[in-house]
């Protein structure tokens, strides 16, 4: 007879849920990990050949989280005995008078993170894959990395199972019910489970599931468009390890940045326009809208002199966005045995190992590795 009661049930097996399951399973907890699709599926947010890992944040809390992530990724690689991240550097540009560059410098200096600030002529000499105008500057941070996204998610599933977690894919949770004895009951199409505690890390489905538990989270779910752009023959190498990750803060408003990753597995440079996709229902995703790539193609023409601006291998992913674009890492205010990880707003993947540690700490009532006030549900008290 299969087991139906667990110490902790983790609903959602993207990078956050899978990392949480692994962390808890290592500590000896009886863990159930459920996802409605297969590990590394393309319906949500945790997939692809690469994601940017970086220190480049103007907010100190994310620099601190990144420092922990830079320790955790190699530890995960050692456990898995496989390569999951690769250093390639990160190049971030803006107008020379944009205060974001000064904010990044202050954080780098405060935390002793190496960097260089480059004027256009020096940047263009150092990085022939990129073209920067004379009234702009760039900050190069040599520790920028790519994480092999799909492989990392699948690795966490594998390691969680090796440490005793029960993992169930293609298992959509249809109901979550707090019981009078304090346990939580979960139902899927073909099974019923109970757990002492649950972790909800379901990405774009968080708003729906939490609404049934009395919380109306102010989340927007968007379908973001990403494509690959091919270099011309004879171009300088655009491969990982040769070309850095790219963040371009010239657009206005400043949160709508362009970004690019070097060639990893899929041919070409992967690029997108952060946070500009249409709002959607995650269960009714529309087809890829090729007109969405027009701004990215124009940017490629301006910033990448050796790339064709015609997109190839178009794909989408979901963003689940909070009003302030900070994460939600907290307990349910009425049912503290329900722990919530949500609203990663298109920049959570890099922190996956640390987010797993944080949510595991909330489950176990131990001190998290970082202060969590920034990520509290209470900041939405009027909306919730």
Description:
This protein is α+β, with helices and mostly antiparallel strands and 384 residues long. Strands 1, 2, 9, 10, 11, 12, 18 and 19 form an eight-stranded mixed beta sheet that branches. 49% of the residues are buried. The mean pLDDT is 96. The chain has two domains: 5-46 and 150-216 and 324-380, FAD/NAD(P)-binding domain (3-Layer(bba) Sandwich); 90-142 and 220-321, D-Amino Acid Oxidase, Chain A, domain 2, CATH 3.30.9. The chain is 25% helix and 26% strand. The chain has helices at residues 15-26, 60-80, 99-111, 120-126, 149-162, 206-211, 294-303, 352-364, and strands spanning 5-11, 31-34, 51-53, 85-87, 90-95, 116-119, 136-141, 145-147, 166-168, 175-178, 184-187, 192-200, 220-229, 245-248, 258-261, 269-273, 312-321, 328-331, 338-342.
Helix-strand category: alpha+beta
Question: Strand content of the residues, in percent?
Answer: 25-35%
Helix tally equals 8
* Biggest beta sheet attributes: 8 strands, mixed
Instruction: Write down the Rg.
Output: 21 Å
The strand count comes to: 19
Global shape: globular
Q: In the CATH classification, which architecture of the largest domain applies? A: 3-Layer(bba) Sandwich
Ends apart, CA distance between termini: 41 Å
Domain module tally: 2
Report the order of strands and helices: EHEEHEEHEHEEHEEEEHEEEEHEEEH
> Uncertain segments of ≥5 residues (pLDDT<50)?
none
CATH class of the largest domain: Alpha Beta
The CATH homology group name of the largest domain: FAD/NAD(P)-binding domain
Percent range of helical residues: 25-40%
| Global mean pLDDT | 96
CATH structural fold name of the largest domain: FAD/NAD(P)-binding domain
């Amino acid at each position: 007879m299969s087991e139906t009661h667990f110490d902790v049930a983790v609903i959602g097996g993207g990078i956050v849920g899978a990392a949480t399951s692994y962390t808890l399973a290592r500590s000896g907890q009886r863990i159930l990990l459920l996802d409605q699709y297969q590990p590394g599926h393309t319906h949500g947010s945790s997939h692809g050949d690469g994601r940017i890992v970086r220190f480049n944040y103007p907010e100190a809390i994310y620099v601190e989280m990144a420092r922990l992530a830079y320790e955790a990724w190699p530890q995960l690689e050692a456990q898995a005995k496989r390569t999951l991240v690769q250093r390639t550097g990160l190049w971030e540009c803006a107008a020379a008078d944009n205060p974001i560059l000064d904010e990044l410098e202050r954080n780098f200096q405060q935390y002793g993170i190496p960097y260089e600030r480059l004027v256009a002529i020096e940047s263009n000499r150092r990085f022939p894959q990129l073209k920067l105008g004379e009234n702009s500057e760039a900050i190069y941070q040599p520790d920028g990395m790519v994480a092999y996204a799909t492989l990392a998610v699948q690795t966490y599933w594998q390691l969680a199972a090796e440490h005793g977690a029960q993992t169930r894919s293609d298992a959509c949770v249809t109901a979550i019910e707090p019981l009078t004895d304090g346990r939580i009951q979960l139902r899927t199409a073909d099974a019923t489970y109970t757990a002492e505690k649950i972790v909800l890390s379901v990405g774009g489905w968080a708003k729906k599931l939490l609404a049934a538990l009395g919380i109306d989270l102010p989340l927007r779910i968007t379908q973001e468009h990403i494509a690959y752009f091919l270099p011309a023959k004879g171009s300088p190498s655009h491969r990982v390890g040769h070309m850095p990750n790219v963040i371009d803060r010239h657009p206005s408003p400043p949160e709508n940045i362009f970004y690019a990753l070097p060639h990893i597995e899929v041919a070409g440079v992967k690029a997108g326009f952060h946070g500009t996709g249409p709002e959607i229902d995650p269960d009714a995703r529309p087809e890829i809208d090729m007109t969405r790539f027009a701004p990215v193609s124009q940017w490629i023409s301006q910033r990448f002199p050796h790339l064709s601006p015609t997109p190839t291998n178009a794909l989408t992913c979901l963003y689940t966005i909070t009003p302030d674009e900070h994460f939600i890492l907290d307990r349910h205010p009425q049912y503290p045995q329900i722990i919530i990880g949500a609203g990663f707003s298109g920049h959570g993947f890099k922190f996956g190992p640390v987010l797993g540690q944080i949510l595991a700490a909330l489950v176990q009532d131990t001190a998290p590795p970082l202060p969590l006030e920034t990520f509290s549900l209470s900041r939405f008290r009027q909306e919730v």
